[in-house]
Design a protein that fits this description.
756 residues, alpha/beta, TIM Barrel, eight-stranded parallel sheet, five-stranded parallel sheet, 28 helices
Length: 756
């Protein structure tokens, strides 16, 4: 039985790529030094997989920023505004990823969206009518040859043609179907070149195939691959899917001349049934996704062996694979000192999943797999009690009634009450919550955790930073202020650390966008709040100003979606437990006279099923009520805000309105304010703050640019409904660029306000 990986984490077990990239952006290291870090990481990853006996080791799964951006660059999909900068190739690449502001010009970054149902963000390629799609880059080939220098023949990985064209944005009259011929020719060229270089396999990733597919989609897919595969020579092609099942295209996959088909048997609800009912082509190898690429719990060998044994009865040739890339899990438990050995035995990060493949291969190689010592040891692990229950939490969740999910009075009445109370000007200005986490902020937190400073010293530092932040916000004229969140390491981890039922790691970093990483908490038991989490700092900030100060919380759906969840209870039950804990905090803030409370649901869409038919039954039916549960108990004059970012929200805009918040801020700057049309079309009742500038880019927007954006918003949004804010929190930005951008934002709002 052979084994295959779809992809491997790339930022480094100690985030080496992150730190090297940041130094490169600051001109502290050269491009050669950045490339050297990349080469060291790639070599380490390949050798680790080789040592664990992985048979199909991927290459080109490494990226300096994003794999879809790599694919666009490979195929010459580079908008003219970036070419016009006249920068070297890697600098042009980073300009598309991060924006550029310098001697060569001033351009925004490409749009950024969530990668299907994950917390990873991809860059949206832009295809102009004049774009000449062709194989122009060399990274794919260079890394394949680089691996060969280490005596490792890899399986080059590339985003497939269908997913590329479906996820791209089209600037002009042409659409995906108009680029079939040249796209197919470009991919065929890649296959030919890899064949010449000695590649045995190439993996083409087509996650778009697990979404709802129309007849037009199927026609586009078959047109592309009929052409791509028509002259592929001896190199074998693996068509790899993940994040769901391929019920809409299973027959087409079987009919086309792929050598292998990768199918997800973890998230693919109907994958096994498709194989049972329709069989599997004898001339193809089934790459079966049986090891979870998203969660961090150990593989249950009993379940996996049963699945594999059934699949061998349907597929003539079988390869064991991950369900998706291991990009979505941390590197290794070897770096973990915070977890006890008792707890660690239940987990498998990326490196441990390599070991699981080796063990599965060894077990399956025995005449009686179930008598294997490795199998028996695994079975004992799953026979032990793993999760910690709390009967009080369970009883509280079970006793919820419909009234707990409904806020009164209705929105229109609350809106009038709140406008009379706060007396904010038209186009009120605010921020999303966090301010730059500078080196001294991180050092203060680190010193406290090490025990080098007292709790009193730690808090006094934070109070000083809050006072400074409030004073600066007042100076530049923001209308609704925030305390800056200097005490918070992460918008989810901070709350996880303050709640009962979570456990935490030291180095279990997972890539989110670019080389930005997060460290998701792990849900270990039932979740509850045993003490207040945020009131002290919010109350202090409020004492410093006569302006409103928002209390800042993270919502239950985002906390759950950005954590590693339990496997023994439903996501709904976990979400309701968290919602009750956050509800307690909301009421605590209100009791402390915090009159505006923001409950962020940045990840609301993240776990939305990829098929629309499953949205209500599997997700929205509990995700929206979980948010409503959090705020349903507050008074009419307490204003509830929420925030969402970097996803496509237009198709669930009515569900978002049903969250019944008073104000919702959206990411909108990178998506060219597209969400405004959806808001306008559905009669959105909630007040809105579409982000007027992109905080994931270091460029500083001009006052005129911001004014133009506000005027576009006012063409479609009533003045009484519109707020003015950046598109996300400012934690990752530099101090000077943050305050200059905000000064421009306030000035733009004031100047537009004068014209109303």
């Amino acid at each position: 039985m052979k084994t295959s990986l779809i992809g491997y984490p790339r930022v480094g077990s100690l985030r080496e790529l992150k730190f090297a990239s940041e130094k490169y952006f600051k001109n502290e290291i050269t491009i050669d030094e950045l490339h050297r870090t990349g080469a060291e990481l790639r070599a380490s990853h390949w050798k680790s997989q080789q040592e664990h006996g992985i048979d199909f080791i991927p290459s080109n799964d490494f990226s300096f920023y994003d794999n879809l951006l790599d694919t666009a660059s490979l195929f010459n999909i580079i908008p003219e505004r970036y070419r016009a900068l006249g920068l070297p190739p890697l600098e042009t690449y980073f300009a598309m990823a991060r924006g550029y502001q310098g001697a060569q010009g001033d351009v925004k970054a490409l749009a950024m969206k969530k990668w299907f149902n994950t917390n990873y963000h991809y860059m949206v390629p832009e295809i102009d009518d004049s774009t000449a799609i062709r194989a122009a880059g060399t990274k794919l080939f260079d890394e394949f040859l680089e691996a060969k220098q280490h005596q490792i023949t890899t399986k080059p990985v590339l985003i497939g043609a269908f997913t590329l064209l479906k996820l791209a944005k089209y600037n002009g009259g042409k659409q995906a179907g108009d680029f079939v011929q040249e796209t197919a020719a470009a991919y065929a060229d890649v296959l030919s070149r890899l064949n010449e270089l000695g590649a045995e396999w190439i993996q083409l990733d087509e996650p778009q195939l697990v979404a709802d597919l129309s007849k037009e989609d199927l026609l586009l897919f078959t047109k592309l691959y009929s052409r791509i595969l028509s002259g592929k020579a001896s190199v074998k092609v693996l068509l790899q899917t993940y994040f769901g099942d391929v019920r809409d295209c299973y027959r087409e996959l079987q009919a086309l001349p792929f050598d292998g088909i990768g199918i997800d048997f973890i998230e693919g609800k109907q994958s096994l049934e498709l194989v049972r009912q329709l069989g599997f082509a004898e001339d193809k190898i089934l790459f079966a996704g049986v090891v979870n690429g998203k969660n961090i719990w150990r593989n249950n060998y009993k379940n996996t062996l049963a699945l594999v044994q059934e699949l061998t009865g349907h597929a003539k040739q079988l390869v064991l694979s991950t369900s998706c890339s291991l990009l979505h899990v941390p590197y290794s438990l070897q770096r973990e000192t915070a977890l006890s050995d008792e707890k660690k035995r239940y987990f498998a990060f990326a490196e441990e999943k390599l070991r699981e493949f080796a063990e599965l291969k060894a077990i399956l190689g025995q005449a009686d797999p179930y008598s294997s010592a490795l199998y028996i040891q695994n079975e004992k692990l799953f026979g032990d009690t793993r999760f910690e229950g709390n009967v009080t939490v369970q009883a509280r969740t079970a006793s919820l009634t419909d009234a707990d999910f409904k806020r009164l009075p209705v929105f229109a009445e609350r809106e009038a009450i709140q406008k009379a109370k706060f007396k904010l000007p038209p186009l009120p200005t605010t921020t999303i919550g966090s301010f730059p986490q500078t080196a001294d902020v991180r050092a203060n937190r680190f010193s406290f955790r090490k025990g080098d400073i007292s709790e009193e010293q730690y808090k006094q530092f934070n109070f000083d930073k809050i006072a400074e932040c409030i004073a600066l916000q007042e100076e530049i004229g923001l209308d609704v202020l925030v305390h800056g969140e200097y005490e918070r390491n992460d918008m989810v981890e901070y709350f996880g650390e303050s709640l009962d039922g979570f456990i935490f790691t030291k180095n279990a970093w997972v890539q989110s966008y670019g080389t930005r990483c997060v460290k998701p908490p792990i849900v270990w038991g039932d979740i509850s709040r045993s003490k207040p989490m945020t009131a002290e700092y919010s109350v202090y900030a409020k004492s410093l100003t006569g302006k409103p100060v928002k209390g800042m919380l993270t919502g239950p759906v985002t906390i759950l979606n950005w954590s590693f969840p339990r496997e023994d209870i439903s996501l709904k039950d976990s979400a309701l437990q968290i919602a009750l804990a956050i509800r307690d905090e909301v009421l605590d803030l209100e009791a402390n006279q915090i009159e505006i409370i923001q409950i962020d649901e940045a990840a609301l869409r993240e776990k939305l099923p990829l098929r629309q038919s499953d949205w209500q039954s599997e997700y929205l039916s509990w995700a929206i009520p979980a948010f409503r549960l959090v705020h349903s108990g507050v008074k009419a004059d307490t204003q509830i805000h929420t925030h969402m970012c970097y996803s496509q929200f237009s198709d669930i805009i009515r569900d978002i309105d049903a969250m019944d918040a008073d104000v919702i801020t959206f990411e909108a700057s990178r998506s060219d304010l597209a969400i405004i049309d959806a808001i306008n079309a559905c009669g959105f009742q909630t007040e809105v703050g579409p982000g007027v500038y992109d905080i994931h880019s270091p460029r500083i927007p001009s006052v005129e640019e911001l004014k133009q954006g506000l005027r576009r918003m006012l063409d479609k949004i009533n003045t009484t409904k519109l707020w003015v804010n950046p598109d996300c929190g400012l934690k990752t930005r530099g101090v000077s660029e943050t305050w200059e951008s905000l000064r421009h934002l306030v000035q733009a709002a004031k100047e537009v306000r004068e014209t109303l």
